[in-house]
Specification:
It is a single chain. The chain has about 100 residues and is mostly beta strands. The chain is built from one helix and seven strands. About 10% of the residues lie in helices and about 35% in strands. Strands 1-6-7-5 form a four-stranded mixed beta sheet, with no helix packed on it. A three-stranded antiparallel beta sheet has the order 2-3-4, with no helix packed on it. Strand 2 and strand 3 form a beta hairpin. It is globular, with a radius of gyration of 15 Å. The chain starts with a helix and ends with a strand.
């Protein structure tokens, strides 16, 4: 029984959710509630393709182009120790 449950958990898709404009955040960035729109002016994109937002660093692999004119961020918050874990940041195509 444990093997069946473990196999299900490993093969279960990562849940994503929709951005307010209707496109879906990708499952590899979002655990179902980690993503939300942000002000593009709060993002500092770097020459190497990485970006920072409110002190969080996103590698170039974590930087994506938004599917709308807005910017978005996907971050997990650990309320127990107040840590934040960056997953993805979406830059407006007009930035």
């Amino acid at each position: 029984m444990i093997r069946i449950v473990a196999a299900f958990l490993v093969s279960a898709p990562v849940l994503a959710h929709d951005a307010p404009s209707g496109w879906s955040y990708p499952g590899d960035c979002c655990g179902g509630s980690d993503c939300h729109p942000i002000a593009c002016s709060t993002i500092k994109d770097q020459p190497d393709g990485s970006a920072t937002w409110l002190g969080l660093f996103f590698t170039r692999e974590q930087v994506k182009i938004s599917h709308d004119a807005s910017c978005h961020v996907c971050v997990t918050y650990n309320t127990a120790n107040h840590n934040r874990f960056p997953h993805c940041i979406f830059l407006s195509p007009t930035m």
